[in-house]
Design brief:
The chain is α+β, with helices and mostly antiparallel strands. It is 35% helix and 28% strand.
Protein backbone atom coordinates (compact mmCIF):
# COMPACT_ATOMS: atom_id res chain seq x y z
CA UNK A 1 0.00 0.00 0.00
CA UNK A 2 1.48 3.33 -1.12
CA UNK A 3 0.99 6.21 1.32
CA UNK A 4 1.29 9.73 -0.13
CA UNK A 5 4.30 11.72 1.09
CA UNK A 6 6.28 8.67 2.21
CA UNK A 7 9.35 7.66 0.18
CA UNK A 8 9.56 4.35 -1.58
CA UNK A 9 10.94 1.51 0.52
CA UNK A 10 9.53 2.79 3.82
CA UNK A 11 7.27 0.23 5.51
CA UNK A 12 4.84 0.70 8.37
CA UNK A 13 6.19 -0.74 11.62
CA UNK A 14 9.76 -0.91 10.31
CA UNK A 15 12.63 1.54 10.91
CA UNK A 16 14.36 2.84 7.76
CA UNK A 17 17.57 4.91 7.78
CA UNK A 18 18.75 7.23 4.98
CA UNK A 19 21.84 9.44 4.98
CA UNK A 20 20.78 12.87 3.72
CA UNK A 21 24.05 14.73 4.33
CA UNK A 22 27.59 13.40 4.71
CA UNK A 23 30.42 15.90 5.23
CA UNK A 24 34.08 15.36 6.01
CA UNK A 25 35.51 17.71 8.65
CA UNK A 26 39.28 17.40 8.23
CA UNK A 27 40.07 19.90 10.98
CA UNK A 28 38.23 17.90 13.66
CA UNK A 29 39.03 14.54 12.03
CA UNK A 30 35.43 13.38 11.78
CA UNK A 31 32.52 12.77 9.44
CA UNK A 32 29.35 14.73 10.13
CA UNK A 33 26.19 12.91 9.09
CA UNK A 34 22.53 13.88 9.02
CA UNK A 35 20.33 10.83 8.89
CA UNK A 36 16.64 10.69 8.07
CA UNK A 37 14.93 7.97 10.09
CA UNK A 38 11.48 6.74 9.11
CA UNK A 39 9.66 4.85 11.88
CA UNK A 40 5.96 4.95 11.00
CA UNK A 41 3.99 2.84 13.46
CA UNK A 42 7.07 2.34 15.64
CA UNK A 43 8.70 4.36 18.39
CA UNK A 44 11.62 6.69 17.75
CA UNK A 45 14.84 4.63 17.81
CA UNK A 46 17.15 5.22 20.77
CA UNK A 47 20.57 6.83 20.46
CA UNK A 48 22.18 3.43 20.96
CA UNK A 49 20.07 1.92 18.13
CA UNK A 50 21.10 4.73 15.77
CA UNK A 51 24.73 4.43 16.92
CA UNK A 52 24.76 0.66 16.24
CA UNK A 53 23.17 1.09 12.82
CA UNK A 54 25.61 3.82 11.72
CA UNK A 55 28.62 1.85 13.01
CA UNK A 56 27.56 -1.33 11.20
CA UNK A 57 26.69 0.55 7.99
CA UNK A 58 30.03 2.41 7.87
CA UNK A 59 32.04 -0.53 9.18
CA UNK A 60 33.53 1.37 12.13
CA UNK A 61 33.76 0.72 15.86
CA UNK A 62 30.69 1.85 17.85
CA UNK A 63 32.95 3.86 20.18
CA UNK A 64 33.80 6.21 17.29
CA UNK A 65 30.13 7.13 16.66
CA UNK A 66 28.38 9.89 18.64
CA UNK A 67 24.70 10.73 18.14
CA UNK A 68 24.45 14.45 18.92
CA UNK A 69 20.68 14.76 18.66
CA UNK A 70 17.54 13.17 17.29
CA UNK A 71 14.74 15.53 16.31
CA UNK A 72 11.29 13.98 15.86
CA UNK A 73 8.27 15.72 14.39
CA UNK A 74 5.08 15.07 16.32
CA UNK A 75 2.95 12.37 14.69
CA UNK A 76 5.10 12.14 11.56
CA UNK A 77 6.98 8.90 12.14
CA UNK A 78 10.10 10.66 10.88
CA UNK A 79 13.20 11.84 12.73
CA UNK A 80 16.43 13.58 11.78
CA UNK A 81 19.60 12.51 13.61
CA UNK A 82 22.86 14.44 13.76
CA UNK A 83 25.79 12.02 14.06
CA UNK A 84 29.57 12.48 14.31
CA UNK A 85 31.94 9.66 13.35
CA UNK A 86 35.53 10.18 14.52
CA UNK A 87 38.79 8.75 13.22
CA UNK A 88 40.03 7.96 16.74
CA UNK A 89 38.57 7.56 20.23
CA UNK A 90 41.09 10.02 21.67
CA UNK A 91 39.99 12.73 19.24
CA UNK A 92 36.33 12.11 20.10
CA UNK A 93 36.96 12.37 23.85
CA UNK A 94 38.75 15.70 23.36
CA UNK A 95 36.05 17.28 21.18
CA UNK A 96 32.70 15.85 22.31
CA UNK A 97 31.37 17.37 25.55
CA UNK A 98 30.97 15.07 28.54
CA UNK A 99 27.16 15.17 28.42
CA UNK A 100 27.18 13.92 24.81
CA UNK A 101 29.65 11.17 25.73
CA UNK A 102 27.38 10.11 28.60
CA UNK A 103 24.27 10.11 26.40
CA UNK A 104 26.00 7.74 24.00
CA UNK A 105 26.77 5.15 26.69
CA UNK A 106 24.52 2.48 28.14
CA UNK A 107 22.54 4.01 31.04
CA UNK A 108 24.18 1.88 33.74
CA UNK A 109 27.68 2.88 32.64
CA UNK A 110 26.77 6.58 32.40
CA UNK A 111 25.15 6.44 35.85
CA UNK A 112 28.34 5.00 37.41
CA UNK A 113 30.47 7.76 35.87
CA UNK A 114 28.08 10.49 37.07
CA UNK A 115 28.06 9.08 40.62
CA UNK A 116 31.86 9.04 40.62
CA UNK A 117 31.99 12.66 39.42
CA UNK A 118 29.50 13.74 42.10
CA UNK A 119 31.49 11.93 44.78
CA UNK A 120 34.72 13.67 43.67
CA UNK A 121 32.95 17.05 43.63
CA UNK A 122 31.69 16.54 47.20
CA UNK A 123 35.19 15.58 48.39
CA UNK A 124 36.67 18.63 46.72
CA UNK A 125 34.00 20.87 48.27
CA UNK A 126 34.73 19.52 51.78
CA UNK A 127 38.43 20.43 51.50
Amino acid sequence: MEIPGIPEGVEIGKVTYRVIDDRKNSLLKRRELRIEIWHIGASTPTRLDVKRHVASTLGVDENLVYVRKILTGFGLGKSIAEVHVYESIEQAKIIEPLYIQLRNMPKEEAKKIMEELRRKAKEKKKK
